[in-house]
Structure formats: C-alpha cells, structure tokens
Amino acid sequence: MEISVGQSASRSMVVTAEIVGQYAELTGDRNPLHFDEEFTSRTRFKRLISQGGIAVGLLHALVAMDLPGAGTVFTEQHWVFPAPVYVGDTITATGTITEWIEERHRGSMDFVIVNQDGVEVLTGSTVVYQAVPRD
Q1: Of 10, 54, 90, 103, which is most buried, counting CB atoms within 10 Å of its CB?
Q2: What Pfam family is a match for this entry (predicted)?
Q3: Helix 17-27 vs helix 52-65: angle between axes, to the nearest 10 degrees?
Q4: What is the greatest pairwise CA distance in the chain?
C-alpha cells in the first residue's frame, strides 16, 4: 500500500472488565482505580477506569495492522490523556499520517481516541518506522 500525508485509519474496541483484568495479568497494574469500585467512587473518576495502556495498545494495533501496516513500530511517542476511559466505554482511535519519507520507510502521525460520546480520551503524536523485508 502506498502511504501519503493526510491518509488516516480508525480502529475501535469495547473496553470490558475482562480486558482490564487481562491487562493486569500481563503487566501487574492492579491499581484500585481499575478494580475497587468503593475506592474509585471516592475519587474524581467516580467509577472504574481502564489502564492507559489499553488505549495505547489500540494505537499499536492500528499502526501495525491498518496504517502504515505490517512491520510498523513506534520509535517515538507522546500521549496526553485528557479524560479517562471507563470500563464499558467504546473507544475509537484515528491515526493520520502527517509526514512520510518513503525512501526511509519512516514518518510521523497524529492520533486521537474518542469514546462513544465523542469525548477525547487520548491525543498525541508519534514517529513510526515500517520494516520492509529485503529481497
């Protein structure tokens, strides 16, 4: 696939309690904000939130599977989390190519993730590299 500035792709997921639990198993992140409803009810969040890595993981899938696609990895990342992702939210990530250097298989992308209400839960930018098999 040819990659060009302005190209974008999106990917969505529902963040379930099961996914939050699986992420905790993988990473050890058992923050009570993710599992203890009584604790979380006394914070500004009021209800269970997911680990930030779940939203970032959706971006990893978008870059590796959709745009730029197979063989792509992050070489630099900058994320801001303006709002939490609550357990039960549907989040949609959109990535847009802002710079692409074809001969180096490298470029920059901007990202936004919104929840089902259109609230931005992550914004950011990244530099990506697409490993291309050599003949």
Answers
A1: 54
A2: MaoC_dehydratas
A3: 90
A4: 59
Q: pLDDT tens, 15-64?
A: 999 999 999 999 999 999 999 999 999 999 999 999 999 999 999 999 99
Give me the amino acid identity at 80: V
Confidence of residue 134 (pLDDT cuts 50, 70, 90): confident
- pLDDT at position 69 is 94
Nearest to 72 by CA among 82, 80, 60: 60
Domain locations in the chain?
8-130
Contact criterion met (CB below 8 Å) for 63 and 72:
yes
* Number of continuous H segments (helices) and E segments (strands) in the chain: 4, 5
What CATH class is the domain 8-130?
A: alpha beta
